[in-house]
Amino acid sequence: MSQEPNVVDAAIIGAGFSGLYAIKRLRDAGFSVQAFEAGDGIGGTWYWNHYPGARVDLECWDYSYSFSPELQDEWDWSHRYPTAQELMRYLEHVADRFKLREHIQFNTRVDAAEFIEAENLWLLRTSDGKTLKARFVVPATGGLSVPKPPEIPGIETFAGEAYHTGRWPRQEPAYEGKRIGVIGTGSSGVQVIHTLAGKCKHLTVFQRTAVFVVPAKNHPLTPEMRQRVRATYAERRNLSRITRFGIPAPMPTESALEATPEERQAKFENAWVNSQLLGFRQCFGDILSNAEANELVAEFIRGKIREIVKDPATAQKLLPYGFPFGTKRPCLSDNYYSVYNRDDVSLVDLKSTPIVRIVPEGIETTEGLIELDMLIYATGYDALTGALTHIDVRGVGGRKLNDKWTDGAKAYLGLMTAGFPNLFTVTGPGSPGPLANMSMGIEQHVDWITQCMEYLRDHGIARIDADPAAEDAWMQHVQEVVSRTLYEKANSWYRGANVPGKPQLFLPYLGGHGNYRRKCDDVAAAGYQGFALTRRARAGQPVADLAGSAA
Ligand code: N01
Questions:
Q1: Which one Pfam family would you cite for this protein (predicted)?
Q2: Ligand 1, atom 44: nearest CA belongs to which residue?
Q3: How far apart are CA 184 and CA 205, in angstroms?
Q4: What residue ranges do the domains of the chain occupy?
Q5: Which pLDDT tens digit goes with each residue over 456-512?
Q6: Would you say the C-alpha torsion 72, 139, 164, 205 has a positive or negative sign?
Q7: What's the gap in Å between 511 CA and the centre of ligand 1?
Q8: Residue 11: in which H helix or E strand, if any?
Q9: I need a surface site. Which of 206, 366, 367, 500 has the fewest CB within 10 A?
């Protein structure tokens, strides 16, 4: 489409799941594309999170691209939940198979993006000192890309090795014979802990909040298992497109409170034995909306923890309290709780024994010094907005995105934020994002963005921007849906509560992947309702503003 030198139709930021698919879809639709990737390889989240035990916890059949039946047929996953390394091999295969690498400039960060109103173009500045103009920008930067430090005094004084799970070194460190401390017990911490237990001299876990961990039941896949899924793959994907979580399992409507104790016990046991990430949430329709129903699940899992962990005092520290089950992301592991039965693993409960400071030799707690050779920070991310707010993004009138989002991020449908025209966010604030199958959400967003750009091209439209009123109404709707659930009761990263000073606003849309997809499709079918479209100026004619036709 673009005829001008040094102007591309779409600048894509990131070469992970969303960046790769954006390159493919937009290029295949005839747009010129240029992608920038900070790492020296493909993979995004899976490139940076190479820590021991890193693997996805949605089944591989669902956490993978659905756009190509051939790709589905030819790629053999080794396990139900593949490792980060295997996911990277898959993404590298995708990049090679669809010839995407030639569009990616590696080792290059986008530092700034400024909208030039007179030209309806974005000017990007990159870490190699160059600039590029683009008609559209697609930050495919992921929701969990900017690591959050642990905010503990003395962190810079530690004399041993120190790593954040979200920036794991390419060269695997040696663990044998070392005294290792892990701070954080979210999904990353749990995976590190169950993997390193027994592989180092001593593992000390520093736990601020106990989490719910359910069995992973990970296993190798046989050719027969793969064949079984392939035989019904199309139906599986079609079902996933209309369900709440973007996986092929619709939500039940039955209340946990209406079931008999025996029925509940049978369902919970089944969810434990045939475990999967969303299994307990799918036992009954009200687990995430009714505190009493939720507590039944929570207490069932606490019972399992008491059974597994032999020392009652340690078991007590591992019992999750203070937030409803599922409102902080539950974790999967086949041996997390049993590692605490080992003599070479100890648990420090930071609620009763806080960290005073980090010192060169290790960690000083209120009960004394714990000497360490290696410290692993599994302390999470500046999630959902961090990747974008770390870029100097300036929209209409030079307004900074950071200024617009001071009181919390806003975006219409999680696709565009008003005042920043022609910039599409992939799985952005206000979309289901991390609360549904991310790979399904990414494809849905990229498909929508591609179709939108085709529409603009076909209709001679130079600029699209979210209408501020539509954006406000959507964000209100996002909050209204949250208020009908128990998610509000947790200090989770979904609301920015994990980052000191970050504005707290619940950002993922909880209305469900299927409903959300329908809403996005309806908006497009109505001529981009809630967006303002501006026609390309023709010689001798004024530029015409069009409200999205049904707005
Ligand atoms: O990060 P987290 P994560 N002192 O924010 C603690 C996805 N993911 O990297 O809960 C002491 O969940 C913090 O304590 P608290 C997945 O969506 C997926 O583990 O704030 N502790 C918490 O225990 C996941 O939800 C996979 O009180 C401190 C931990 O660090 C998301 O990424 C694998 C602290 C952070 O947990 C993030 O997971 C990995 C401090 N100063 C990640 N600061 C899979 O697919 C923080 N903590 C399997």
A1: Pyr_redox_3
A2: 56
A3: 8
A4: 6-146+383-547
A5: 999 999 999 999 999 999 999 999 999 999 999 999 999 999 999 999 999 999 999
A6: negative
A7: 24
A8: strand 7-13
A9: 500
